[in-house]
């Protein structure tokens, strides 16, 4: 369900207050009348709207075809060499690269009656030579902390909670795993719930580099509570980088998938289960990190993070992680009721709890391997947890994870 557009002007006023030095958190708790008293003039509103329009023009590239998605998204089919990535100072003048030889077996597109994302349900698709990009609207911008922070993660690490399994103490050239897809509940549109794989190198708080991919529910970013396929990257400890194609960086090469697009099929409690198999692989020759998806028995490359974006990931990842993450803003005082995974604890098992199966790391010789010395990071055991399973003929190394958030054991 989409967030009401009637609150757009309140967000606009908050933007003005932020630009004038007023703390956003205090403004969000005031009633509409007192908030209005902090705003200066219609001129400022005009100026801010003009700033937003300029930013939207930078993000939204000219489309040669437009597709209306059933969930309300507008998908623009943009020429591949005109995508946002090539606005990055380090990538200007470049064109999309071909995949490395060992990945050329991946299919780039095929006709199928199954549709991974809602925008393609009608049978519409983007033409050859283009990629689908979810159009960013003024309402999307107004929900952000500020124009400059649009598309970025919360900078405050203390509000993030995790249930994660990690493999470290080595160099890795990638990872692969099948991530169970759900639509967890959010207490607030400002919070999110995520299931993902991510590869990191460097030191947190200093020079951390990260590549992330999975699914998320995030009202503030998308304006609804649908489960969406996403990526994220940073080359400087989350000071820069962004979700999907909301800033220059990731180079998309596939016309089948829209980053940030809603996922068609999600799992139900005691019902049918769905998962997405993701693979991230470093190309030795160029240093680029390629993202692939396995869908319905076929493999597709979506695009790559150029090596130029990173400092620490140039030599490979120091750590591979799989699991869940939520943001806990405590908007009502106690712990948030935002759920992780299915919203049920891992002990409930298949069909009830979320899972990630066939978790593997890719070593520097491009061998897929199971975790050897995994470590667990569960930040709030009574709210969200994780159970690891070593081996299964079909599932390999896997975990169940998640939880409901606030409850009897999670005050």
Automatic annotation (TrEMBL):
Record-annotated Neprosin PEP catalytic domain positions: 153-411
Keywords associated with the record: Membrane, Transmembrane, Transmembrane helix
Highest taxon of the lineage: Eukaryota
Entries under InterPro entries matching the protein: Glutamic_endopeptidase, Neprosin, Neprosin_propep
Keyword check for Transcription regulation: no
Pfam families registered for this protein in UniProt: Neprosin, Neprosin_AP
Regions crossing the membrane: 6-24
Family matches, as PANTHER family: CARBOXYL-TERMINAL PEPTIDASE, PROTEIN, PUTATIVE (DUF239)-RELATED-RELATED
Name under which the protein is recorded: Neprosin PEP catalytic domain-containing protein
Organism this protein belongs to: Vicia faba
């Amino acid at each position: 369900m989409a967030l009401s557009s009637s609150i757009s002007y309140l967000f606009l006023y908050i933007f003005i207050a932020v630009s004038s030095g007023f703390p956003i958190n205090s403004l969000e708790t005031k009633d509409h009348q007192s908030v209005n008293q902090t705003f200066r003039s219609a001129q400022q509103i005009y100026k801010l709207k003009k700033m937003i329009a300029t930013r939207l023009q930078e993000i939204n590239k000219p489309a040669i075809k437009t597709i209306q998605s059933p969930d309300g998204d507008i998908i623009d089919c943009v020429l591949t060499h005109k995508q946002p990535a090539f606005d990055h100072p380090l990538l200007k003048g470049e064109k999309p690269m071909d995949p490395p030889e060992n990945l050329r077996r991946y299919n780039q597109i095929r006709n199928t009656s199954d549709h991974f994302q809602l925008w393609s349900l009608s049978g519409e698709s983007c033409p050859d030579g283009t990629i689908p990009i979810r159009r960013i609207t003024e309402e999307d911008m107004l929900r952000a902390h500020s124009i400059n922070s649009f598309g970025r993660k919360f900078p405050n690490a203390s509000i993030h909670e995790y249930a994660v399994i990690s493999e470290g103490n080595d160099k890795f050239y990638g990872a692969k795993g099948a991530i169970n897809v759900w639509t967890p509940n959010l207490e607030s549109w400002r919070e999110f719930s995520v299931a993902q794989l991510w590869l990191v190198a460097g030191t947190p708080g200093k020079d951390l580099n990260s590549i992330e991919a999975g699914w998320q529910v995030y009202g503030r970013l998308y304006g609804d509570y649908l489960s969406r396929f996403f990526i994220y990257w940073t080359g400087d400890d989350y000071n820069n980088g962004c979700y999907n194609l909301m800033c220059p960086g990731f180079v998309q090469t596939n016309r089948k998938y829209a980053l940030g697009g809603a996922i068609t099929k999600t799992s139900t409690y005691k019902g049918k289960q769905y998962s997405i198999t993701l693979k991230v692989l470093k190309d030795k020759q160029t240093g680029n990190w390629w993202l692939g998806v396995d869908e319905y028995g076929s493999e597709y490359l979506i695009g790559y993070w150029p090596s130029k974006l990173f400092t620490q990931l140039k030599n490979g990842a120091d750590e591979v992680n799989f699991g869940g993450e939520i943001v806990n803003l405590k908007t009502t005082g106690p712990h948030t009721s935002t759920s992780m995974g299915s919203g049920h604890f891992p002990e409930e098992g298949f069909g009830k709890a979320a899972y990630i199966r066939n978790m593997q790391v890719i070593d520097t010789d491009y061998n897929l391997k199971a975790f050897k010395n995994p470590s667990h990071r569960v930040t709030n055991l009574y709210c969200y947890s994780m159970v690891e399973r070593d081996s299964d003929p079909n599932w390999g190394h896997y975990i169940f994870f998640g939880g409901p958030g606030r409850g009897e054991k999670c005050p």
